[in-house]
Specification:
The chain is an alpha/beta fold and 277 residues long. The chain is built from nine helices and 13 strands. The protein has a nine-stranded mixed β-sheet with strand order 5-6-4-3-2-1-11-12-13, with helices on both faces. A four-stranded antiparallel β-sheet has the order 7-8-10-9. The model has no long low-confidence stretch (mean pLDDT 94). The structure holds magnesium ion. Magnesium ion binds next to loops.
């Protein structure tokens, strides 16, 4: 006897990359919930952003914020958590990354000595963030309230200055991770894959059964998550192409973003269940 859990990226995967709408995926989410398959967000988005989306979609499972920097578990979700954790409001938090204040200090120190044309939430006003991201005021505020990372949402990420910046951050224990649109600067020892492995252990320990893990992603920052699960799925970018990556057993879904997400849920996870039952 085994049970399934699903990890999912948000931007460009569960959510449309331009409208951020989850509408497309609502019926499939309900069907997964009927089968008691936990849906674990695993995204570069912040706690505030993910909590809003969980409320909207009526999802009450644990979630992974800021690219694997921390795992949030609703109080009472698991009977036991045999590892270090802290408490934040209604959640048990397992922290794997560095604090945002340490990360911002390191970026400021670098900026004072070297040129860097990239701007993060910390450098931009709320109207500027709204204009660049297309988020409304609340969404922009929530995206800016970061606990474990900074994200550059403006600038050139392909020039030599940025390459030098990435190397300097690496030497200071940080990593620059590319998502669907932006670059997140975070603790280099945290990633989506480590967070997935920690949660898998917690599910197995608490359920007392083997857990089969699946994950859906669309871009480079999803590689550690996809490599950490038994059933990795990659959806297409709006360009109609898949992000180039090498991951064992990766199944490339022939549809873009949330349409691909639906296919994973209905044609693979739910179809597999009806075959095995
Ligand atoms: Mg994405």
């Amino acid at each position: 006897m085994s049970r399934q859990i699903l990890f999912t990226d948000l931007d460009g995967t569960l959510l449309d990359l331009d409208t951020y709408s989850p509408e497309q995926s609502l019926p499939a989410i309900k069907r997964l919930q009927e089968q008691e398959i936990p849906i674990i967000f695993c995204s570069s988005k912040t706690r505030a952003e993910q909590i809003d989306l969980r409320n909207e979609l009526e999802i009450n499972d644990p979630f992974i914020v800021e690219n694997g920097s921390a795992i949030f578990i609703p109080k009472g979700y698991f009977r036991s958590i045999p590892m270090d954790y802290c408490l934040k409001e209604d959640h048990i938090v397992i922290e794997l990354g560095k604090s945002a204040s340490d990360i911002l200090d390191t970026i400021r120190e670098y900026r004072s000595k070297f040129p860097l044309d990239c701007m993060g939430y910390e450098d931009l006003s709320l109207p500027e963030i709204m204009q660049i991201t297309g988020l409304d005021e609340l969404g922009a505020q929530e995206a800016s309230s970061r606990d474990y990372s900074e994200t550059f949402i403006k600038g050139n990420f392909d020039n030599i200055d940025f390459h030098h910046f990435s190397l300097a951050m690496e030497l200071r224990g940080l990593a620059c991770v590319r998502g669907s649109k932006y670059v997140t600067i975070m603790g280099k020892y945290a990633d989506k894959g480590k967070a997935v492995s920690v949660l898998r252990e917690l599910f197995e320990a608490n359920w007392g059964t083997k857990v089969i893990t699946a994950a859906v992603g669309d871009s480079g920052n999803d590689i550690p998550m996809l490599a950490a699960v038994e059933q990795p799925f990659l959806v297409k970018k709006p360009s109609g192409l898949w992000h180039e990556m090498k991951v064992d057993n990766l199944l490339r879904i022939d549809s873009i973003g949330p349409i691909g997400w639906d296919k994973v849920a209905i044609e693979h996870l739910l179809a597999d269940l009806s075959v095995s039952s």
